[in-house]
Amino acid sequence: MKVIRSKKWNNRVLETTNHSTGMGNMRCYTPTARWWQLFKYDDGQIINIKTNISMDVYQNRDSENQNIIMSKSHGKINQLWDIVYVDSWGGEPKKGELNEDFGFYVERPFHIVSMLPRRRYL
Predict the structure, then answer these.
(1) 3-class DSSP state of 68
(2) What does the pLDDT look like over 12-47, one tens digit per residue?
(3) Would you say the C-alpha torsion 101, 105, 107, 113 has a positive or negative sign?
(4) How many angstroms separate the CA atoms of 25 and 18, rounded?
(5) Which of 61, 84, 109, 114 is found 20 to 30 A from 7 (Cα to Cα)?
(6) Dist CA 22 CA 70 (whole Å)
């Protein structure tokens, strides 16, 4: 169990805002290594070591700027996370390289063409 340190701000770690229950929003804050900053990774879930509650995408909404909270563990997809270690991540694809997540080449012009017999362009 460890703190989860910000790559951008080395002097900040993740913690839950409600220290009395451990449930609440997540934020980056000054490290203190208190229980509200200590987590374990177990079967795809990031779990607080004291309260046994999980990091959760609020309201299960897959949208930009959605809050990350701590809530009771249920193991559904909004509480499942992948860990990608920095030294094994190749970084974002560069111009001309295939972005395998989306199936497009980065910054390479294209047309969208119908597969119907007349092959009309969109």
Answers:
(1) strand
(2) 998 988 888 888 899 989 988 889 899 999 999 999
(3) negative
(4) 8
(5) 61
(6) 7
Contact 24, 16 (CB under 8 A): yes
- Tokens at residue 30, please? 């000054």
- What pLDDT, on a 0 to 100 scale, did the predictor assign at position 90? 78
Sign of CA dihedral 67, 73, 74, 76: positive
State pLDDT tens for residues 92-121: 888 888 888 778 888 888 777 888 888 777
Residues 44/80, Cβ–Cβ less than 8 Å: yes
Per-residue pLDDT reduced to its tens digit, 63-74:
888 899 999 999
How many Cβ atoms sit within 10 Å of the Cβ of residue 52? 12
